[in-house]
Amino acid sequence: MTFENKLDHIKEFFKEKNPNKKFNDNMRKILSKLKDKTLKLEVQLENEKDEIKRKNISLMLKVISKQQKKGEKLIQEREKYSYSFKKQNLIAKPELSPRVLLG
User: How many helices and strands, by DSSP H and E, does the chain display?
Assistant: First the structure.
């Protein structure tokens, strides 16, 4: 009984991990940081009175929004083609019956 419990505990270390999960987690962290930076820049843009600085801040906001869209698109593509997705959608081959010869 204890041997089986130890085997169940050790099995977790040998299971294949999904490489896309780690990528997606890291990408989500980056996107959250970009979102925080966007909020700070928007506040700074509201308070800024110098026109040149306002243009720079608005340009930075545009760049950040494009980066966020690109990151979200990458996450969606990785989730679409992830290992677990392919594993769940296996198609079972139909079993064919032997030919019936008519005599």
Answer: 4, 0
